[in-house]
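Practice problem 4.
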């Protein structure tokens, strides 16, 4: 006859084996998810490196100067464009008006 402790031990072994299988399966799924995240992270880092290289190229001073000369047609500022100091209006000597503070009563509202 089979002892009850033997049946209990066999059931416990089956349960522990099933739990180990479930844990292993979950770990495999988590590792696959981590690998996908690592791949996306590597792609993002590569994209950032490419964008930084493109930004460095696009902001080269010689390139910007060439583009500005070609498209903007900028000329130096003449002294007549600046005007005279007498053209600047003087500041008003009166003080600016200030808003008066409203007074509040401390009596309770009715």
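Answer key:
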């Amino acid at each position: 006859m089979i002892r009850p402790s033997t049946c209990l031990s066999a059931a416990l072994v089956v349960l522990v084996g099933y739990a180990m299988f479930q844990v292993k399966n979950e770990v495999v799924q988590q590792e696959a998810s981590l690998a996908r995240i690592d791949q996306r992270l590597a792609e993002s880092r590569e994209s950032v490196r490419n964008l930084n290289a493109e930004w460095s190229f696009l902001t080269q001073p010689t390139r910007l100067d060439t583009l500005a000369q070609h498209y903007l047609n900028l000329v130096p500022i003449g002294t007549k464009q600046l005007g005279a100091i007498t053209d600047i209006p003087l500041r008003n000597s009166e003080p600016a008006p200030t808003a008066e503070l409203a007074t509040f009563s401390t009596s309770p509202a009715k």
